[in-house]
Amino acid sequence: MDATNDMWLNDLTRKREKGPTLHKESYSEFSDATKAVHAGQYNDPNTGALGTPIYQCSTFYLNEASYKAIEEGRGRDEMIYSRYGNPSQWSVQEKLSSLEKAESSIVFSSGMAAISSTLLAMLDKGSHVVSSRDIYGGTYNFLYEDLYRYGMSVTFTSPTNIKDIEAAIQENTKILYFEALTNPLLKITPIKDLVALGRKYNLRVIIDNTFLTPYNVKPIDLGVDLVVNSATKYLNGHSDLIGGTVSGSRKLIDCIWPQMLKNGGSMDPHACFLLERSLKTFALRMRTHNANALKLANYFEAHEKIKRVYYPGIQSHPQHDLAKSQMNGKYSGMVSFEIEGGDKNAHKLLSYLKLPKEATSLGGVESLISLPYNTSQASLTKEQQKNIGINEGLIRLSVGIEDIEDLISDFEQAITNVFKKELVC
Ligand SMILES: *Cc1c(COP(=O)(O)O)cnc(C)c1O
Fold first, then answer.
1. pLDDT at 7 over 80
2. Which position among 42, 81, 84, 136 bears the catalytic label?
3. For 82-136, how does the pLDDT look when each residue is reduced to its tens digit (9 = 90+)?
4. Is 136 among the catalytic positions?
5. Active-site residue identified among 74, 233, 250, 396
6. Span 33-88, pLDDT tens digits
7. 282-302 and 404-418 helices cross at what angle (nearest 10)?
């Protein structure tokens, strides 16, 4: 970290408290699998109960400390009202901060709540964002349809070409907003180069790390200011809740907190419990997602009926070298591929598969499969889809943690069925 950035991060106008937290243990010296189990967990000293209780309450007794915190604008550090904060939120926030190597985090009721509150908190009237066409549809809509209503603007550029990104920077640019790994073509944003650009022009760099998660890459370690995640996906990993996160320096997260209060997208205590519980197996799940996806990508790459495979962990990915250095050999659980015979055969393949479920979303323990042309990229015309590389027959697979041999045999039988010659008699 260079001196200017260090100064900027520590430029606190008022003293920050350690909170919000219920305890002082830190697990920073441990690795992800250990942090995932232990960090943030609050073992109730009154009862000795192991594990964070679900604080299913909307409000808390006021006391001298909470009155003082309200008066001093430190409402985030005390228990006052559950939209402001709740021990179930604090607990899972600490686990997330530990995994992200961030000073502080906030959990939200959805990924979009995290993204919209983060952007609104960081932008002023008249300011400009540089982002990419290859971003999540909800984020694209927010940037494209809503920013101008607040007197802000956006330019969409390539997520991979730093020269294009630099060329899009204007006098009033405040934020570079990109995804670490894009949907569905799994392009990789060169995070270190993006951070260097941010430093050069004094911009904040925000990364949506939903597709990779802090298990595969830690953007904060690479110098990014803020990381957002849809916790709905890998962080929770069980396809049973909607949630979002933002992590970064205590200073920036303190700036986002009042925006969260105004937009109202705080996470419900029961959802916090589910997310914290799910995160205990985070490292275990991610290891299996990554390993299964690499094996499936290699299987598809060798299959004569599969025209093209998109996966950062294989040689044919145009940014394979960047993937190796940036993702440390952890290439994600997402694989996209094109089948011979276009969308017609893609639909057939989905109908023959027994294990992967045909559904949108990703990152769950169960494999999920969908066609980008009629799901995530459905709002684009065929022409626009072609221009951004969504070819006929493209399939997106979120590889689950099922037995890899079972997954491969399922694809083998399904592909065989798609190309089975009709019997003519
Ligand atoms: C799903 C997703 C989001 C939005 O998250 P929600 O929890 O559905 O609001 C944002 N970014 C990416 C990359 C996603 O995949």
1. no
2. 136
3. 999 999 999 999 999 999 999 999 999 999 999 999 999 999 999 999 999 899 9
4. yes
5. 233
6. 999 999 999 988 889 899 999 999 999 999 998 999 888 888 898 999 999 999 99
7. 30
Ligand 1 in reach of 20 Cβ (< 6 A): no
Q: Which of 16, 83, 305, 307 is catalytic?
A: 83
Site of tokens 């950035």? 5
- Distance from residue 220's CA to the centre of ligand 1 (Å): 19
Q: Which pLDDT value is given to residue 15?
A: 55
In SS3 terms, the chain reads as CCHHHHHHHCCCCCCCCCCCCCCCCCCCCCCHHHHHHHCCCCCCCCCCCCCCCCCCCCECCCCHHHHHHHHCCCHHHCCCECCCCCHHHHHHHHHHHHHHCCCEEEEECCHHHHHHHHHHHHCCCCCEEEEECCCCHHHHHHHHHHHHHHCCEEEEECCCCHHHHHHCCCCCEEEEEEECECCCCCCECCHHHHHHHHHHHCCEEEEECCCCHHHHCCCCCCCCCEEEEECCCCCCCCCCCCCEEEEECHHHHHHHHHHHHHHCCECCHHHHHHHHHHHCCHHHHHHHHHHHHHHHHHHHHHCCCEEEEECCCCCCCCCHHHHHHHHCCCCCCEEEEEECCHHHHHHHHHHHCCCCEECCCCCCCCCEEECHHHCCCCCCCHHHHHHCCCCCCEEEEECCCCCHHHHHHHHHHHHHHHCCCCCCC
Identify the band that residue 4 occupies on the pLDDT scale cut at 50, 70 and 90: very low
Main-chain dihedrals φ then ψ at residue 155, nearest 5 degrees: -125, 130
Cα 168 from Cα 194, distance rounded (Å): 13
Rounded to two decimals, the pTM is 0.94
**What's the 181 CA to ligand 1 centre distance in angstroms?**
13
